[in-house]
Amino acid sequence: MTKIKNMMTAATALILGSVVCAAAPGAAAAEAVPLVTTGALFNDPSDPAKQDVIFGHLSHLIDGAVPGSDIEISSYVFGSDWLVGRLNAAHLRGVNVEVLLDSESLKHYAGGPSYTKLAEGLAVTTQTSGNSWVRVCGDRQACLAKDPNPGDTAYSNNHNKFYLFSRTTGSASGTVPVDNVVVQTSMNQTAWDRQKAWNDALTVAGNKELYDAYSGYFGRLTAAQADPALQVSDLSTEYQAGKAKAYFFPRSASDPILNILNTVDNPVEGSAACYGNTDGFGTADGRTVIRIAMHQITRVEVAKKLWELDEAGCYVDIVYRQLDNTGTAIADQLAKPTKFGGISLHQLNDDAQGGTSTHSKYLLIEGTYKGLKNQKIVFTGSHPYTNMGLTTNDEALLKYDDADVHDAYRENFRTQRTAADQ
User: Fold this and answer.
1) What pLDDT does 153 receive?
2) Which residue of 32, 100, 282, 306 could cross-link 367, Cys pair, CB 3.0 to 4.6 Å?
3) Within 13 Å, how many C-alpha atoms sit on residue 41's CB side?
């Protein structure tokens, strides 16, 4: 697995998973190791020393953006004066900073003052400044997603949380520029997201196909923000890019999460669904394990499929903050007994229980996938398993097929599950 070295201070290296990537002491400048490579980062809201891991990583990527390069950000409730200062400074040194925000970002509680500072900073023009701007989706509207029921109170949102860097050294002191960097995170830029919520960020570096897919999606978001006639109800095109695959929303014709789950029980030749893995891969007897850390689940068909997979022999383990919006249909479905005892459910909700909340939105598959055994795959992003997340919001989902990345997420899942069970 490749590593990310992310310096919170000049003397402190943040660990990606369990490994730090650093040049050997006394290494020559010509042998410098890139600070930015592919891997996962997780904050820990229960530990003040680890609350700002993702936040710090983004700060350093912004500080390392080279003059003439592009930063493209699509974000919900962007409320960080610190990042605003970094973005304004990047703009002044010649970086093209383009930021697309949801209308919630204009509200005082969500970061309105930060928006004002960003808009004012990016409007400054000098001989060295970049071609920069910040724009906002329509009030209570997504930018690209066409609200199927604009008269109801389920307002659509630009719910994205991704950061694109065409070239960055990874910090102001970095020496090795890396191109085509995508950071897909679950974290909004609010104090709650850092101090009370568990979040993840997957960085994919040097993958031009993935970068181009995200940048193309950003372009469509931007165009629809300027002209709502360009809004759409379905973005069914998906983008395979090596180990990565990008899915964008809204969707009206199909549910990508349901499609993904429907491939888990594609049987390995000669085996029943959910079986056929090497012993110890997944469960001790080789059954597939599905792990989900999810802010909210409200889609009935997704809940039914998860139950069916557990009934078929998969081990389904879920850490969640909330289930139903109204009623108990999702909670009842997920709690139904199966032949194997039922889905393992763990609530992590600071409102209901105190402590912390999961704000992650990831799905881990360890086992069978598309008829192949011994797979380790991560699906993460801004996309919650809600009806709005499917049909109404601007969202992104990123698949990454890599054992070490999966195992880093699996460790984070176990940490969140332990927090939920305390």
Assistant:
1) 79
2) 282
3) 30
